Amino acid sequence: MRIVLLGPPGAGKGTQARRLAESYGIANISTGDILRDAAAKGTEPGLAAKGYMDRGEYVPDDMMVRLVMERLARPDTRDGFILDGFPRTVPQAQALENALAEIGRPLSCVLKFKIDDEMAVKRLAARWTCPSCKRTYNMEYKPPKLDKECDVCGAQLHRRDDDDEVTVRRRLEVYRRDTKPLEFFFWERGLLREVDAEGPEDVVTDRTLEAVSDIVDLAT
Ligand code: AP5
Question: Between the CA of residue 196 and those of 27, 118, 134, 192, what are the distances in Å?
Fold first, then answer.
């Protein structure tokens, strides 16, 4: 199973990616998490990426392609993977398509999570994130059991620097400009499947599992 998740900020890609990867025991690759970890470590590329992220802009394609190709070369991707947040531009999609064609392991499908902009803004305004295990919480829909503490690993939750409303609206614009065209790119290849991402998390998970159920039967 090799799946790409598409969808605007706040659509619930990260939430559903974790659930899918756990259900099928495959690698979960979040480019946002990889970049935030690199920035937290203070590496040069990490700090360069943080500048783009904090402005709600995309990190340049060459850096993203290099980073994802290195990650896909690791052995834990052999049985399959979820790509959450990559590709986001047509050049990234072409690079991925070529790399997977070279090893004879094309994508199984692309799931596009559909959500209204105002719902996305509302969700992100209430998101708190665990910097350690990367789980996300929502003060409106899914608060942690203890105040600002991760239920699973106990780390202090924090707000992402790019979750203020002005930056979220910029991220939505950038998504529309640079990532929307990928819907046609993948549709043309017969890979695009839509998932209604509004409604309770568990309901969206059921829809997501249903959307990939035929692929599960085909194993990897
Ligand atoms: P990234 O971290 O990938 O951010 P994003 O794509 O903007 O998506 P989000 O993480 O904000 O939202 P999500 O859809 O994962 O929602 P979540 O599950 O958390 O990327 C950040 C930045 O990195 C980019 O802006 C860019 O700068 C850079 N970058 C990354 N990849 C790149 C690339 N390939 N090229 C260039 N630059 C790149 O859910 C959101 C909230 O809603 C949570 O609080 C959650 O609990 C809640 N929630 C989830 N589902 C539901 C539900 N069904 N009902 C109610 N609440 C829900």
Answer: 24, 15, 24, 13
Question: pLDDT digits over 131-155, tens only?
Answer: 999 999 999 999 999 999 999 999 9
130 in Cβ contact with 155 (< 8 Å)? yes
Q: What is the rounded distance in angstroms from the CA atom of residue 120 to the CA atom of residue 137?
A: 14
Strand 127-129, strand 192-196: pairing: unpaired
Q: Rounded CA gap, 3 and 185, in Å?
A: 15
**Single-letter residue type at 71:** R
Nearest C-alpha to atom 42 of ligand 1 is from which residue?
A: 123
Contact 57, 49 (CB under 8 A): no
Query: Rounded to 10 degrees, what is the CA torsion of 17, 21, 27, 30?
Result: 10
Taking CA atoms only, the protein residue closest to ligand 1 atom 34 is: 86
Q: Are 128 and 148 within 8 A, CB to CB?
A: yes
Q: How far apart are CA 15 and CA 84, in angstroms?
A: 10
pLDDT, tens digit, 9 for 90 and up, residues 35-48 = 999 999 999 889 99
Q: Is 53 in the pocket of ligand 1 (CB under 6 A)?
A: yes
